[in-house]
Specification:
Elements (H helix, E strand, L loop, with lengths): L10 H4 L12 E3 H12 L6 E8 L13 E15 L2 E5 L3 E5 L5 E16 L12 E4 L2 H10 L11 H14 L3 E2 L9 H12 L7 H8 L3 H12 L3 H18 L4 H7 L5 H12 L3 H7 L10
Parallel strand pairs: 1-2
Antiparallel strand pairs: 2-6, 3-4, 3-5, 3-6, 5-7, 7-8
Helix pairs in contact: 3-4, 5-6, 9-10
Protein backbone atom coordinates (compact mmCIF):
# COMPACT_ATOMS: atom_id res chain seq x y z
CA UNK A 1 0.00 0.00 0.00
CA UNK A 2 1.45 3.33 -1.05
CA UNK A 3 2.38 5.79 1.69
CA UNK A 4 -0.17 8.58 1.97
CA UNK A 5 1.08 11.92 0.79
CA UNK A 6 1.97 14.28 3.62
CA UNK A 7 -0.18 17.38 3.77
CA UNK A 8 1.53 20.58 2.62
CA UNK A 9 2.52 22.81 5.50
CA UNK A 10 3.59 26.37 4.67
CA UNK A 11 7.20 27.12 5.57
CA UNK A 12 6.22 29.81 8.11
CA UNK A 13 4.11 27.29 10.05
CA UNK A 14 6.96 24.75 10.14
CA UNK A 15 9.37 27.34 11.55
CA UNK A 16 10.05 27.15 15.28
CA UNK A 17 7.87 29.41 17.34
CA UNK A 18 9.47 32.52 18.75
CA UNK A 19 10.31 32.41 22.44
CA UNK A 20 7.59 34.46 24.14
CA UNK A 21 9.62 35.05 27.31
CA UNK A 22 10.65 38.67 27.94
CA UNK A 23 14.12 39.52 26.72
CA UNK A 24 16.62 40.17 29.54
CA UNK A 25 17.50 43.77 30.38
CA UNK A 26 21.13 44.80 30.79
CA UNK A 27 21.02 47.42 33.53
CA UNK A 28 23.95 49.71 34.35
CA UNK A 29 24.37 50.79 37.96
CA UNK A 30 25.75 54.16 38.99
CA UNK A 31 26.91 57.22 37.07
CA UNK A 32 30.34 55.84 36.22
CA UNK A 33 29.11 52.63 34.58
CA UNK A 34 26.17 54.30 32.85
CA UNK A 35 28.39 57.16 31.68
CA UNK A 36 30.83 54.75 30.02
CA UNK A 37 27.93 52.96 28.34
CA UNK A 38 26.40 56.25 27.20
CA UNK A 39 29.64 57.23 25.45
CA UNK A 40 29.61 53.94 23.53
CA UNK A 41 25.99 54.42 22.47
CA UNK A 42 26.72 57.83 20.93
CA UNK A 43 28.49 56.16 18.00
CA UNK A 44 26.11 53.27 17.32
CA UNK A 45 25.14 53.23 13.63
CA UNK A 46 21.41 53.28 14.37
CA UNK A 47 18.83 56.10 14.70
CA UNK A 48 18.44 55.42 18.44
CA UNK A 49 20.12 53.46 21.22
CA UNK A 50 18.49 52.58 24.54
CA UNK A 51 19.85 51.93 28.03
CA UNK A 52 18.46 50.96 31.44
CA UNK A 53 20.21 52.37 34.52
CA UNK A 54 19.86 52.40 38.30
CA UNK A 55 21.16 55.02 40.74
CA UNK A 56 21.31 55.17 44.53
CA UNK A 57 19.72 57.91 46.63
CA UNK A 58 21.90 61.00 46.65
CA UNK A 59 24.06 60.15 43.64
CA UNK A 60 25.27 63.21 41.74
CA UNK A 61 26.54 63.05 38.19
CA UNK A 62 29.20 65.21 36.56
CA UNK A 63 28.38 68.01 34.11
CA UNK A 64 28.30 66.51 30.63
CA UNK A 65 26.58 66.61 27.27
CA UNK A 66 25.86 64.16 24.46
CA UNK A 67 26.21 64.34 20.71
CA UNK A 68 22.75 62.82 20.49
CA UNK A 69 19.43 63.99 21.88
CA UNK A 70 18.36 62.23 25.09
CA UNK A 71 14.95 61.03 26.23
CA UNK A 72 15.34 60.53 29.99
CA UNK A 73 12.41 58.51 31.40
CA UNK A 74 12.08 57.87 35.16
CA UNK A 75 10.41 54.73 36.53
CA UNK A 76 11.08 55.30 40.24
CA UNK A 77 12.54 58.04 42.39
CA UNK A 78 13.03 61.68 41.45
CA UNK A 79 15.91 62.97 39.35
CA UNK A 80 16.75 66.66 39.22
CA UNK A 81 18.43 67.78 36.01
CA UNK A 82 20.28 71.10 35.98
CA UNK A 83 21.25 72.88 32.75
CA UNK A 84 22.51 76.35 31.90
CA UNK A 85 18.99 77.22 30.75
CA UNK A 86 17.07 75.93 33.77
CA UNK A 87 16.42 73.00 36.07
CA UNK A 88 13.82 70.25 36.14
CA UNK A 89 12.62 67.65 38.63
CA UNK A 90 11.62 64.47 36.78
CA UNK A 91 9.04 62.39 38.65
CA UNK A 92 8.09 58.77 37.95
CA UNK A 93 6.26 58.27 34.64
CA UNK A 94 7.66 61.57 33.38
CA UNK A 95 10.51 62.13 30.96
CA UNK A 96 12.86 64.97 30.14
CA UNK A 97 13.75 65.68 26.54
CA UNK A 98 17.33 66.97 26.28
CA UNK A 99 18.41 68.21 22.83
CA UNK A 100 21.87 67.38 21.44
CA UNK A 101 24.80 69.24 22.98
CA UNK A 102 22.98 70.56 26.06
CA UNK A 103 25.27 70.54 29.10
CA UNK A 104 23.49 69.00 32.11
CA UNK A 105 24.01 67.47 35.55
CA UNK A 106 21.76 65.08 37.48
CA UNK A 107 21.05 64.34 41.12
CA UNK A 108 18.95 61.48 42.51
CA UNK A 109 16.40 61.71 45.31
CA UNK A 110 15.48 58.21 46.38
CA UNK A 111 16.53 55.11 44.46
CA UNK A 112 16.19 56.04 40.79
CA UNK A 113 15.43 53.56 38.03
CA UNK A 114 15.34 54.99 34.52
CA UNK A 115 15.22 54.19 30.84
CA UNK A 116 17.02 56.49 28.45
CA UNK A 117 17.22 56.75 24.69
CA UNK A 118 19.99 58.47 22.76
CA UNK A 119 18.63 59.68 19.44
CA UNK A 120 20.60 60.76 16.37
CA UNK A 121 20.16 64.48 15.59
CA UNK A 122 18.78 63.62 12.13
CA UNK A 123 16.24 61.23 13.67
CA UNK A 124 15.26 63.91 16.20
CA UNK A 125 14.37 66.44 13.49
CA UNK A 126 11.01 67.99 14.33
CA UNK A 127 11.34 67.21 18.05
CA UNK A 128 11.81 70.03 20.62
CA UNK A 129 14.86 72.26 20.34
CA UNK A 130 14.87 73.02 24.08
CA UNK A 131 14.61 70.85 27.20
CA UNK A 132 11.00 69.81 27.77
CA UNK A 133 9.32 67.87 30.57
CA UNK A 134 6.86 65.29 29.20
CA UNK A 135 4.13 63.01 30.53
CA UNK A 136 4.78 59.43 29.38
CA UNK A 137 1.73 57.50 28.19
CA UNK A 138 1.32 53.77 28.96
CA UNK A 139 2.00 53.00 25.28
CA UNK A 140 5.25 54.97 25.17
CA UNK A 141 6.32 53.47 28.49
CA UNK A 142 5.95 49.93 27.16
CA UNK A 143 7.71 50.80 23.90
CA UNK A 144 10.68 52.25 25.77
CA UNK A 145 10.79 49.24 28.09
CA UNK A 146 10.92 47.05 24.99
CA UNK A 147 13.64 49.20 23.40
CA UNK A 148 16.13 48.47 26.21
CA UNK A 149 15.85 44.74 25.39
CA UNK A 150 16.75 45.19 21.71
CA UNK A 151 20.22 44.45 20.31
CA UNK A 152 22.34 47.58 20.01
CA UNK A 153 22.69 46.97 16.27
CA UNK A 154 19.04 46.06 15.73
CA UNK A 155 17.51 45.35 12.32
CA UNK A 156 16.31 48.75 11.12
CA UNK A 157 14.10 47.11 8.49
CA UNK A 158 12.48 44.57 10.80
CA UNK A 159 10.30 44.56 13.92
CA UNK A 160 12.96 46.25 16.05
CA UNK A 161 13.29 49.14 13.63
CA UNK A 162 9.53 49.62 13.60
CA UNK A 163 9.51 49.82 17.41
CA UNK A 164 12.10 52.59 17.33
CA UNK A 165 10.20 54.40 14.57
CA UNK A 166 7.02 54.27 16.64
CA UNK A 167 8.85 55.56 19.72
CA UNK A 168 10.01 58.61 17.77
CA UNK A 169 6.45 59.23 16.56
CA UNK A 170 5.07 58.91 20.10
CA UNK A 171 7.70 61.26 21.57
CA UNK A 172 6.70 63.81 18.95
CA UNK A 173 3.07 63.71 20.04
CA UNK A 174 3.69 63.50 23.80
CA UNK A 175 2.17 66.42 25.76
CA UNK A 176 4.69 68.86 27.18
CA UNK A 177 4.24 69.65 30.89
CA UNK A 178 4.81 72.86 32.73
CA UNK A 179 7.83 72.40 34.94
CA UNK A 180 6.45 70.39 37.81
CA UNK A 181 9.09 71.62 40.26
CA UNK A 182 11.68 73.95 38.72
CA UNK A 183 14.87 74.23 40.75
CA UNK A 184 15.94 77.82 41.52
CA UNK A 185 19.45 78.87 40.57
CA UNK A 186 19.95 81.15 43.60
CA UNK A 187 22.14 79.14 45.98
CA UNK A 188 20.16 80.14 49.08
CA UNK A 189 16.89 79.00 47.55
CA UNK A 190 18.53 75.86 46.17
CA UNK A 191 19.70 74.96 49.71
CA UNK A 192 16.11 75.21 50.94
CA UNK A 193 14.79 73.15 48.03
CA UNK A 194 17.37 70.43 48.52
CA UNK A 195 16.40 70.11 52.20
CA UNK A 196 12.75 69.72 51.21
CA UNK A 197 13.61 67.15 48.55
CA UNK A 198 15.35 65.13 51.26
CA UNK A 199 12.29 65.41 53.52
CA UNK A 200 9.14 66.48 51.60
CA UNK A 201 6.96 65.91 54.67
CA UNK A 202 8.66 68.65 56.69
CA UNK A 203 5.80 70.99 57.69
CA UNK A 204 7.85 73.87 59.08
CA UNK A 205 6.66 77.29 57.96
CA UNK A 206 8.15 79.82 55.58
CA UNK A 207 9.83 81.79 58.40
CA UNK A 208 11.86 78.71 59.33
CA UNK A 209 12.94 78.17 55.72
CA UNK A 210 13.86 81.82 55.31
CA UNK A 211 16.19 81.55 58.30
CA UNK A 212 17.54 78.23 56.96
CA UNK A 213 18.43 79.91 53.67
CA UNK A 214 19.88 83.00 55.33
CA UNK A 215 17.42 85.50 53.89
CA UNK A 216 14.30 87.39 54.91
CA UNK A 217 10.76 86.12 54.47
CA UNK A 218 9.84 88.78 51.91
CA UNK A 219 13.06 88.19 49.98
CA UNK A 220 12.41 84.44 49.90
CA UNK A 221 8.85 85.00 48.63
CA UNK A 222 9.93 87.46 45.95
CA UNK A 223 12.95 85.50 44.74
CA UNK A 224 11.15 82.17 44.74
CA UNK A 225 8.41 83.40 42.40
CA UNK A 226 10.95 85.24 40.28
CA UNK A 227 13.10 82.14 39.76
CA UNK A 228 10.46 79.40 39.58
CA UNK A 229 7.29 81.24 38.53
CA UNK A 230 5.63 79.52 41.52
CA UNK A 231 5.00 80.41 45.14
CA UNK A 232 6.97 78.56 47.81
CA UNK A 233 3.78 76.75 48.91
CA UNK A 234 3.01 75.64 45.34
CA UNK A 235 6.55 74.34 44.87
CA UNK A 236 6.44 72.37 48.12
CA UNK A 237 3.11 70.82 47.10
CA UNK A 238 4.59 69.74 43.77
CA UNK A 239 7.54 68.10 45.51
CA UNK A 240 5.16 66.21 47.78
CA UNK A 241 3.14 65.13 44.79
CA UNK A 242 6.21 63.76 43.02
CA UNK A 243 7.29 61.90 46.15
CA UNK A 244 3.78 60.49 46.44
CA UNK A 245 3.83 59.30 42.82
CA UNK A 246 7.16 57.58 43.39
CA UNK A 247 5.99 55.76 46.52
CA UNK A 248 2.51 54.89 45.27
CA UNK A 249 3.98 53.45 42.08
CA UNK A 250 6.27 51.31 44.27
CA UNK A 251 3.17 49.86 45.97
CA UNK A 252 3.02 51.79 49.25
CA UNK A 253 -0.37 52.33 50.90
CA UNK A 254 -2.11 55.66 50.36
CA UNK A 255 -2.51 56.15 54.13
CA UNK A 256 1.21 55.72 54.83
CA UNK A 257 2.20 58.06 52.02
CA UNK A 258 -0.28 60.74 53.09
CA UNK A 259 0.84 60.81 56.74
CA UNK A 260 4.56 60.66 55.89
CA UNK A 261 4.17 63.66 53.59
CA UNK A 262 2.67 65.82 56.33
CA UNK A 263 -1.05 65.62 55.51
CA UNK A 264 -3.49 65.45 58.41
CA UNK A 265 -5.41 62.57 56.88
CA UNK A 266 -5.54 60.35 53.78
CA UNK A 267 -8.67 62.23 52.65
CA UNK A 268 -6.82 65.57 52.72
CA UNK A 269 -4.02 64.05 50.66
CA UNK A 270 -6.49 62.48 48.20
CA UNK A 271 -8.28 65.83 47.79
CA UNK A 272 -4.98 67.53 46.90
CA UNK A 273 -4.10 64.70 44.54
CA UNK A 274 -7.47 64.89 42.77
CA UNK A 275 -7.26 68.69 42.40
CA UNK A 276 -3.81 68.44 40.87
CA UNK A 277 -4.01 65.25 38.82
CA UNK A 278 -7.73 65.18 37.99
CA UNK A 279 -8.29 61.72 39.52
CA UNK A 280 -7.77 59.90 42.80
CA UNK A 281 -4.49 58.17 43.74
CA UNK A 282 -5.98 54.73 43.15
CA UNK A 283 -7.44 55.72 39.79
CA UNK A 284 -4.08 57.17 38.77
CA UNK A 285 -2.36 53.87 39.48
CA UNK A 286 -5.06 51.96 37.56
CA UNK A 287 -4.59 54.32 34.61
CA UNK A 288 -0.94 53.29 34.44
CA UNK A 289 -1.81 49.61 34.14
CA UNK A 290 -1.63 48.07 30.66
CA UNK A 291 -4.96 48.34 28.88
CA UNK A 292 -6.50 50.76 31.38
CA UNK A 293 -5.27 54.09 30.03
CA UNK A 294 -7.84 54.10 27.22
CA UNK A 295 -10.59 54.43 29.80
CA UNK A 296 -9.50 58.02 30.41
CA UNK A 297 -9.02 59.15 26.80
Amino acid sequence: MAEAARPYVPHDLRAPRRDSRPAPISCFTGHQASGIRAKVLQDVQRPAAAMAAEFADGEVGTRHCHRRAQFLFGLTGIMTVITDGGSWAVAPQQALWIPPGVMHQTRCWGAVSLRTLYIEPDAAAGLPLTCQLMEVSPLLRELVNEAVTLPVEYDVNGRDGRIIDLILVEIGRTPVLARSAPMPRDRRLARICEALLRNPGDNQGIDHWARYGGLGRRTLTRLFRQETDMSFAQWRQQIRLMEALSRLTAGEAVTNVALDLGYDSPSAFSAMFRRTMGLSPRDYLRWGEPGVGAMHD
